[in-house]
TrEMBL record:
Subcellular location: Nucleus
Function summary: Mismatch-specific DNA N-glycosylase involved in DNA repair. Has thymine glycosylase activity and is specific for G:T mismatches within methylated and unmethylated CpG sites. Can also remove uracil or 5-fluorouracil in G:U mismatches. Has no lyase activity. Was first identified as methyl-CpG-binding protein.
Single GO MF annotation: DNA binding
Region (Disordered): 1-20
One GO process term, biological-process aspect: DNA repair
Domain Chromo: 33-91
Official protein name in the record: Methyl-CpG-binding domain protein 4
Gene Ontology terms: cellular component: nucleus
Quaternary context: Interacts with MLH1.
Record's signal peptide: none
Length: 309
């Protein structure tokens, strides 16, 4: 008769029942806790969390709290201001000027500060393939949302929709403060991607924290947007192997042509995107938005190339 095997799983340890009076006293004390400062931020399971330093307690008592549970907007704003100051403290006068200008144009600061700090002034050359990412590279928030909507949808169709979204909500702060998920869903409804309205709103809030390294850490972002970010915003096209058909075309093209625009050939933009916009069938407000965006792209490219020189 075979021996009965002992289960490798140990029986559960006896549960300790907390003293109700003691627990009540702890909960009463929690009501009186005061936030002294915010020391860090992170994203966990799509929730933004802040590391709180409690007034009257040691650093070892710091704890993470979900943003929805934090009632300390002023302390949170102070934390982001301090983070921006730290990131920009060692910038040269030219870099400081570019940072202030880009912060004003983009409507957010932490990513802009980090981008300048890394001295990443890559300008993706414009190709004959007319990818949306080529014109939106200077604004990673817009580009990431565009990629989210481009997934399984053609660039031509998306181009006729996203301008409405970005006219209504030109930056992530506007999206967070004024964005309504029902309204966002109505705008992107022609793409059949209504469920992504919530992703766009959540992604925008996560984006502003600046605590992410690549977009794939943000809600609803997959490999396609991740690859696009590395190619168009970081210039790491040699390290990327795209799986998307259109992105692959651009990747093959830039691998062959090289980083021509970052060397100073900004005029190539006029020849390609300018002519392309003129022949596109667009409404007047749509054409005006894309033309303004194209001009912004050219201004960013010009300033970034000057900094790189």
């Amino acid at each position: 008769m075979a021996k009965k095997r002992k289960s490798p799983v140990k029986p559960d340890a006896p549960r300790k029942i907390p003293d109700r009076e003691k627990l009540k006293g702890i909960l009463d004390d929690v009501k009186d806790l005061e936030v002294e400062s915010i020391n860090s931020v992170r994203i966990r399971k799509n929730n933004i969390q802040y590391l709180i330093k409690w007034k009257g307690f040691d650093e070892k008592d710091n704890s993470w709290s979900n943003e929805s549970d934090c009632q300390c907007e002023e302390k949170i704003n102070q934390f982001y201001d301090q983070q921006t100051q730290v990131l920009t403290s060692n910038l040269s006068d030219k870099e400081r000027e570019f940072f202030d200008w880009s912060k004003e144009k983009l409507g957010y600061s932490l990513w802009a500060a980090d981008h300048v700090l890394k001295r990443n002034y890559f300008v993706p050359p414009v190709s004959p393939h007319h990818l949306i990412q080529e014109i939106l590279f200077y604004d990673p928030w817009k580009m990431t949302i565009a990629c989210m909507l481009l997934n399984r949808t053609s660039g031509r169709v998306v181009r006729h929709v996203i301008y409405k979204l970005f006219i209504r909500y030109p930056n992530p702060k506007e999206m967070i403060e004024k964005g309504d998920i029902t309204d966002i869903a109505a705008i992107i409804q022609p793409l059949g991607l209504i469920k992504r309205a919530e992703y766009i709103h959540t992604l925008s809030r996560q984006f502003l924290t600046g605590c992410w390294k690549t977009p794939i850490e943000l809600k609803g972002v997959g490999k396609y947007a991740e690859d696009a970010y590395k190619i168009f915003c970081c210039g790491d096209y040699k390290l990327v192997q795209p799986e998307d058909h259109a992105l692959n075309k651009y990747h093959e093209w830039i691998m062959k042509e090289g980083d021509v625009e970052s060397k100073g050939e900004v005029s190539h933009d006029d020849l390609v995107w300018g002519a392309h916009l003129k022949h596109e069938e667009m409404k007047e407000d749509e054409k005006e938005w894309w033309q303004t965006t194209r001009e912004m792209r050219m201004e960013f490219a010009k300033r970034m190339i000057q900094l790189k020189a």
